[in-house]
Design a protein that fits this description.
Distance between the termini: 53 Å
Number of helices: 6
Strand content: 35-45%
Helix content: 25-40%
CATH class of one domain: Mainly Beta
Order of helices and strands: HEEEEEEHHEEEEEEEEEEHHEEEEH
Radius of gyration: 43 Å
Number of strands: 20
CATH architecture of one domain: Beta Barrel
Largest sheet: 6 strands, antiparallel, barrel
CATH superfamily of one domain: Efflux pump adaptor protein, beta barrel domain
Shape: rod-shaped
Strand order of the largest sheet: 2-11-15-13-12-16
Length: 405
């Protein structure tokens, strides 16, 4: 009896251990791994090239002055709406009016001198006809009359110039638009001796802007005239604006050995939300397909570990087809071409099911796919949900807790 009694604790321990092992085996069979999944969707896919740029009003005209003087009057300010010919500012005309008066006096003097030389010429010519004046005297009279006439013409030109300069004292708008910059104040002296100083900047049409985008030389081959553009600005972070490439300038700007090219983009601005000098984050639409089946790029990067059960034949080159395995590939913006084939995975109980697919256009977030058995809302695996996997139950400690609940 004692030997049998001694076996009882061993049998109890063996039975208990077998039960625990069986529980863990059943748990592993009953509870499949926790996967992160996302559905296939039908949507538009775009391949993009990114750049930065600056907004400008076009046409934008700098208005200066051709005469020097003191600003006597300002009739406009920032944001003023003007029409062509409107008076914007006036330069003190005192000195310019004095120049006009002086030029008028010199013209009168030159005219009187010319009249006297003309009378003298007629007199000498009459005497010459009567042989009372020599040929030399006639030649001198003709030359003096010609010099006097030239002096009159010079005085007339001077008077015209001074009158025009007096007119330049009134700064007028060359066309209709909005004053976006005012660089002078009343009482300020402007000097036009070397170059015309800029007094105002006039934007002809703020409802039509131009975006000057800096395109890297590695991407410039994918940008062309007529191409669609989307961009955002910091002032409106939740709003996307659109434009069209009008011109790709050949003049490159080279900084630190890297060449960038300017793409001129026409941008409608009917509500005037965009303002000159705003910085934009630009995306050129290199290619686009509409209403196609699209899979998140993360699903194409996923390849299950060898110990994960798979229904059907495991693709031999799944890692290569999906961009080289975990952590590689993905939706770069306009960088490189998408692979021609890949594998998606769906969950079936404790196992995964492979779905070979053909890949189309790869966008920033998702890639166009096609293949047998694919449909919208089909859940495909993105990876392992480590948070969900950590919430398994313990037969001794009770249910696990997550997130403090």
């Amino acid at each position: 009896m004692k030997p049998r009694a001694a076996l009882i604790p061993l049998l109890v321990a063996f039975s208990l251990g077998s039960g625990v092992a069986g529980w863990w085996w059943l748990r592993e069979q009953a509870e499949p791994a926790a996967w992160r999944t996302a559905p296939l969707q039908r949507r538009d896919v775009q391949k993009l090239v990114s750049a930065t740029g600056t907004l400008e009003a076009e046409p934008s005209i700098d208005i200066g002055t051709q005469v020097s003087g003191i600003v006597a009057e300002l009739l406009v300010d920032f944001n003023s709406e003007v029409q062509a010919g409107d008076l914007l500012a006036r330069i003190d005309p005192t000195l310019l009016e004095a120049d006009v008066a002086s030029a008028e006096a010199k013209l009168s003097e030159a005219t009187a001198h010319g009249d006297r030389r003309s009378v003298e010429l007629r007199r000498v010519r009459s005497l010459h006809e009567k042989q009372a004046a020599t040929d030399q005297e006639l030649e001198v009279a003709v030359a003096d009359a010609a010099v006097a006439a030239a002096q009159v013409r010079s005085a007339e030109v001077t008077l015209s110039r001074t009158r025009r300069n007096l007119g330049y004292a009134e700064i007028r708008a060359p066309l209709a638009g909005t004053i976006v910059k005012r660089a002078v104040d009343v009482g300020q002296t402007v000097n036009a001796g070397f170059s015309a100083p800029v007094l105002f900047t006039l934007a002809a049409n703020l409802e039509q802007m131009v975006l000057l985008a800096n395109v890297d030389e590695s991407d410039v081959g994918q940008v062309h005239e007529g191409q669609g553009v989307t961009f955002t600005v910091q002032a409106w972070p939740d709003r996307s604006f659109v434009g069209t490439v009008r011109q790709l300038r050949l003049d490159a700007k080279i900084e630190q050995g890297v060449a960038t090219y300017i793409a001129v983009v026409d941008v409608p601005n009917a509500d005037r939300a965009l303002m000159p000098s705003m910085t934009a984050t630009v995306e050129f639409v290199v290619a686009e397909v509409k209403d196609v089946l699209c899979v998140p790029n993360g699903a194409l990067r996923f390849t299950p570990d060898a110990e994960v059960p798979v229904i059907g034949a495991r693709p031999e080159s799944a890692a290569a087809a999906n961009g080289g395995g975990k952590g590689r590939g993905g939706g770069g913006r306009g960088k490189g071409a998408a692979p021609t084939e890949g594998v998606l995975w769906t969950v079936s109980g404790p196992a995964l099911v492979p779905h070979p697919v053909k890949l189309g256009l790869r966008g920033a977030e998702c890639t166009e796919v096609s293949g047998e058995g694919l449909a919208a809302d089909l859940e495909v695996v993105l990876g392992v949900d480590h948070d969900a996997a950590a919430t398994g139950t313990n037969p001794f400690a009770g249910p696990a807790r997550r997130g403090g609940h």
